[in-house]
Amino acid sequence: MSRRLGAAVVAIATLAGCSSNGQPQDELMVSDNPVAATAAHSPAPATTPAGTVRPLAAASAAIVDDRSRTLVVAVDNPPGLRLYQLDALDREPRTVDLATAAESLALAAEGGPLLAATGKTVVRVDLASAEVTPATVDGTAANAAAYRDSTLVAVRDRKSVAVLEGTGTRTITGGLLSADQVYAVGDRAAVLDRLRNAVFELDVAKGTVGEGLRAGQGATNGTVDRFGRILVTDTRGGALLAFSLDPLLMRQRYPVPGGPFAIAFDPRRDLAWVTLTETNEVVGFDVAGEQPEQRYRFPTVGQPNSVAVDPASGRVVVASANGGGVQVIEP
């Protein structure tokens, strides 16, 4: 696959370090009081959602595990998880109760366990038994990712990344205003800072935050593709961004109007599925070439803040954040 550095890269400056008072020195900051980008508010759906829709309360996250054939959807009220049999979605899901709604879901490995970031806890869920094992962190767990034999946790209010290793915990700090998502890419790792609006390298072994690059005008979510890139939605800027970590570079910037927000990657078809909350749509982009190419576009449920994909069948799952249900699309 071509990895040519596009013209967009020359406009991206490497972010500076910290000042003597511990605050990042960032000439590209547009405000002394930055506000993190969030999903654009959706209008009432004007078109019937594609595929089938199952009723469900407001959802905050969704993920598919191919090996166990499980779809997991996090719901807000009451807080919990719904575990669906992916090949029999008409059956009632298993339920896992949580003390606090999960902001994000991730897989520690194929087949699980599931990692649910909820409040001050990362909950590990066995997908076969639905057994829950909590791990407490010092702060608000926003997101988690498996990294080698450990778990990285974005701790938003502490502006840090916790490293859970066996029974111990280390903390990585430095230069962050907020830690919102973490990504493991082979032996490398990165963190998305929504307030500083940048992707930063992490040296997990040394426990340091490395160089960072601006992530558009207001990045919100990201995922890792099979080419070792981090695909990020620039919600404010209306774009899909692609970053490499070896070295840290913005490889692509592709305009995506409509408030791009949630993102999931299909590794068998090289499709990045992105929800557009301004228009209640989900779009599938082929990202194997020099720039993304749109392959699919479907109308969705209202406020489509979550998306997941089944690599085996190519089915796309979109979950509504305002109680519009769970939608399953067969492209």
UniProtKB/TrEMBL annotation:
The organism sits in which domain of life?
Bacteria
* InterPro entries for this protein: Host-pathogen_enzymatic-act, WD40/YVTN_repeat-like_dom_sf
- Its name, as the record gives it, is DNA-binding beta-propeller fold protein YncE
